Amino acid sequence: MELGPDAVHESEDGYYLDCPECGSPATIDNIIEEGRCNGYLNEQVEGIDFEVENKSCSAVLQLELAYTSDPESER
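Below the sequence we write its predicted C-alpha coordinates.
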Protein backbone atom coordinates (compact mmCIF):
# COMPACT_ATOMS: atom_id res chain seq x y z
CA MET A 1 0.00 0.00 0.00
CA GLU A 2 1.43 3.37 -0.96
CA LEU A 3 0.79 6.32 1.32
CA GLY A 4 -0.43 9.65 0.06
CA PRO A 5 0.76 13.02 1.32
CA ASP A 6 -2.12 13.28 3.82
CA ALA A 7 -1.57 9.83 5.36
CA VAL A 8 0.80 10.96 8.12
CA HIS A 9 -0.81 12.77 11.06
CA GLU A 10 0.79 14.53 14.04
CA SER A 11 -0.27 14.31 17.70
CA GLU A 12 1.21 15.16 21.10
CA ASP A 13 2.87 11.70 21.09
CA GLY A 14 4.44 12.12 17.65
CA TYR A 15 3.46 10.97 14.18
CA TYR A 16 0.93 8.29 13.32
CA LEU A 17 -0.93 6.66 10.45
CA ASP A 18 -4.46 5.28 10.40
CA CYS A 19 -4.50 1.49 10.57
CA PRO A 20 -5.87 0.21 7.24
CA GLU A 21 -7.78 -2.60 8.99
CA CYS A 22 -9.39 -1.10 12.10
CA GLY A 23 -8.85 2.65 11.61
CA SER A 24 -7.14 3.19 14.95
CA PRO A 25 -3.99 5.30 15.14
CA ALA A 26 -0.74 3.46 14.46
CA THR A 27 2.17 5.46 15.85
CA ILE A 28 5.40 5.26 13.89
CA ASP A 29 7.17 3.96 17.03
CA ASN A 30 4.68 1.10 17.46
CA ILE A 31 4.85 0.16 13.79
CA ILE A 32 8.65 -0.04 13.94
CA GLU A 33 8.96 -1.67 17.38
CA GLU A 34 5.84 -3.88 17.55
CA GLY A 35 4.50 -4.10 13.99
CA ARG A 36 1.02 -3.34 15.32
CA CYS A 37 -1.41 -0.44 15.62
CA ASN A 38 -2.44 1.14 18.89
CA GLY A 39 -5.83 -0.59 18.70
CA TYR A 40 -4.16 -4.01 18.80
CA LEU A 41 -1.81 -2.87 21.59
CA ASN A 42 -4.68 -1.17 23.47
CA GLU A 43 -2.66 2.06 23.83
CA GLN A 44 -4.43 5.41 23.73
CA VAL A 45 -2.65 8.21 21.82
CA GLU A 46 -2.54 11.59 23.57
CA GLY A 47 -4.41 14.35 21.77
CA ILE A 48 -6.40 12.05 19.47
CA ASP A 49 -10.13 11.64 19.97
CA PHE A 50 -10.23 7.93 19.10
CA GLU A 51 -11.07 5.22 21.63
CA VAL A 52 -8.75 2.27 21.04
CA GLU A 53 -10.20 0.15 23.85
CA ASN A 54 -11.81 -3.11 22.70
CA LYS A 55 -10.55 -2.78 19.12
CA SER A 56 -10.05 -6.10 17.42
CA CYS A 57 -7.26 -5.90 14.86
CA SER A 58 -5.12 -8.54 13.24
CA ALA A 59 -3.11 -6.27 10.91
CA VAL A 60 0.65 -6.69 10.97
CA LEU A 61 2.22 -3.39 9.92
CA GLN A 62 5.63 -2.43 8.58
CA LEU A 63 7.17 0.60 6.91
CA GLU A 64 9.45 0.53 3.91
CA LEU A 65 11.60 3.41 2.75
CA ALA A 66 12.20 3.69 -0.98
CA TYR A 67 15.26 5.52 -2.22
CA THR A 68 16.68 6.57 -5.54
CA SER A 69 19.75 8.67 -6.23
CA ASP A 70 18.48 9.71 -9.66
CA PRO A 71 15.25 11.74 -9.33
CA GLU A 72 14.86 11.74 -13.12
CA SER A 73 14.37 7.96 -13.14
CA GLU A 74 11.00 8.30 -11.37
CA ARG A 75 9.47 10.40 -14.14
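The mean pLDDT is 81.
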